[in-house]
Amino acid sequence: HPGDVLYVPAGWWHKVRVLEPGVSLNISLMATNYATLTCRALQHVLLQRSPAWRQTILTRHYEPQDGGGCCGNSASNGGKHPRSALEQLQHLIETDLPRALQELIQKQGGASAILPPALQGTTTAEPQQQ
Known about the structure:
- This protein is mainly alpha-helical and 130 residues long.
- Helix content is 35%, strand content 5%.
- It has a two-stranded antiparallel ribbon.
């Protein structure tokens, strides 16, 4: 009916089909959540830590001959230099991710560094049941 409003909660897939000529207005109000806020902050830390986190995902990754980089040396890969994408990601998660989290918490201030100042004194809504 003319003038109706339809609210679609964030994350709900939907499809709109127009049955007759008309004008519609779509407005997306995108509030962030704790997971997104934390992931973005962690992404900044990871990208600044080492070139290994900035590598394009390829089928094979090659470690430096000298063992440089954030995540150990070629000896950890049996003296071989190529790694599959899965092995590279697993290696980064196991070796560098815990250090990056500690850096985010201890050196950068943790939650107070992530949450915008305007939101630091606000209360949270009750978690929604899913």
